[in-house]
Amino acid sequence: AKSAGGNRYELADPEADARAITRHGLTTALPAALDRGEFFIEYQPLVHLGDDSVRGAEALVRWLHPQHGVLGPDRFIPLAEHTGLIVPLGRWVLEQSVRQARDWQERHGDQAGPFRINVNLSPCQLTHPGLVADTVDILERAGLEPASLCLEVTESALIGADDDLLKPLRRLAEMGVDIALDDFGTGYSNLANLRRLPVSILKLDRSFTQSMQQFPADPVDLKIVEGIVSLAHSLDLKVTVEGVETGAQAEQLKLLGCDTAQGWYYARPGPPDRLHELALVDATG
Ligand code: C2E
Ligand code: CA
Ligand code: CA
Ligand code: CA
């Protein structure tokens, strides 16, 4: 409470205001941050459940902010989407990741098939007219096969998508780029709708993995995952599960027929060299 005639700028909720200032501050700092090279990428292995081998990685962007330290994508991706900076930022992430993937391929050889890189695509990038040309250009300059790239698009971004929105994804898919439906199972999309989408991979949302934490797991959840996996396989789609934190979850998901897994149980996201070591140990047994 404050007395009448007091400071008119006194705030009702200082914490909410601090958040707003930070949000505003972060938003205005974004473009210069890209110029100054404050973003970096961590890679999290994608593990083939058939033999536990590391066959690829997902690229996850971070911001090393000079005052606030390392910020996760949930802090700044929405701001970058709001201002449109996501387009050059996303292009930068794609370029770095594709070059990194090519580098890993050269260092590892490809006994188990070429090493693959997954990159997240925001809905704003999907509607940007340069998407296909930029992607082709980035792949060509790095010398990476389109089949070694997977673009992850969230289920919610594609719900109700019309043909114009799907056209660039379809062209990329025709070139051999994999499209994954990220956070699958959270968007209430019509399963029959899947046939219409140019996707080749379903990434089951972490919430399903979490429900396997209890032992015995909820039988209804098991049935749901089993159903999704068998539907996916009948449509020729691969299933990746994310958020695997325990060996019990990994076993359960393997039994349910999932193809690929990702999560802290295998490795946290980390620098490129860490991934190189994981994949190398793996390749040499
Ligand atoms: P996502 O695509 O669903 O990525 C998976 C998130 O789960 C990552 O969070 C990852 O660090 C986290 N994670 C991995 N394993 C585990 C686990 O075992 N347990 C738990 N609890 N979490 C796990 P992160 O790195 O904070 O990224 C958050 C989201 O930010 C991503 O969710 C993605 O939607 C977005 N994002 C990240 N990088 C980019 C990017 O380059 N572009 C765009 N557009 N979005 C990005
Ligand atoms: Ca993702
Ligand atoms: Ca996800
Ligand atoms: Ca997510």
TrEMBL record:
It comes from the Bacteria. Residues 23-283 form the EAL domain. This is Cyclic Di-GMP phosphodiesterase RmdA. The lineage of its organism: Bacteria, Bacillati, Actinomycetota, Actinomycetes, Kitasatosporales. The chain holds residues 428 to 712 of 712 of the full protein.
